[in-house]
Amino acid sequence: MITRRRTAIFISGRGSNMDALIDAARAPDFPAEIALVASNRPDAAGLARAKARGIATAAVDHKIYAGRDAFEASLQQILDIHRIDFICLAGFMRLLTPTFTQRWVGRMINIHPALLPSYKGLHTHERALADGVKIHGCTVHYVVPEMDSGPIIAQAAVPVLDDDTPETLGARVLEQEHIIYPRALAAAASGRAHIVGNRVVGAEEAAVGNRQ
């Protein structure tokens, strides 16, 4: 019988990648169970959608805490209550402290809308277009204290078209995010993928090639 890791998804907004992860985890042989969706914004649209699908939700409003340590202590309490042992960041717009990140090292992954190590941070599609790159994409990686710098589990590439805008390019990238994030979670939660140095090995099935 497969052991399914109890997984929390952290969101700050609509949670479109959350939906892709929930859909994938409905398969009985998927190695992760989505047991909680948490947000730092009580008005995040994804919370209502997760609740409607029968998943436990939690809103931990970062604005009511004196600092990041207090916010993360409350977040950790909720994770403990729900017996969470794996975390997926899906549009979670808060930087986590090194203390929290180290506690979850090897058990927390993130999706980023660029081909890391290029275009860390925000406004990735605008920056890619401004630089005139011909290939753009998305990355799933383990979370480490340095932003957008952890070992890479999976990437998908899309061509940059001559008439692209940040919106059209972003839409094509998002389609690939919805494909590779569930694959990367499956590889990481099953133990098939593991970290060697700063590389991830054993995640070949999560890889996606160049897409139109």
What is the topological layout?
Blueprint: E1 5-11, H1 16-25, E2 32-39, H2 45-52, E3 57-59, H3 68-81, E4 86-89, H4 98-103, E5 108-112, H5 124-131, E6 135-142, E7 152-159, H6 166-190, E8 194-196, E9 199-201
Parallel strand pairs: 1-2, 1-4, 2-3, 4-5
Antiparallel strand pairs: 5-6, 6-7, 8-9
Q: What would you note in describing this structure?
A:
With 212 residues, the chain is an alpha/beta fold. The chain folds into 2 domains: 1-104, 3-Layer(aba) Sandwich (Rossmann fold), CATH 3.40.50; 112-212, Rossmann fold, CATH 3.40.50.170. 33% of the residues lie in helices and 23% in strands. The chain has helices spanning 16-25, 45-52, 68-81, 98-103, 124-131, 166-190, and strands at 5-11, 32-39, 57-59, 86-89, 108-112, 135-142, 152-159, 194-196, 199-201. The radius of gyration is 17 Å and the shape is globular. 40% of the residues are buried. The mean pLDDT is 95.
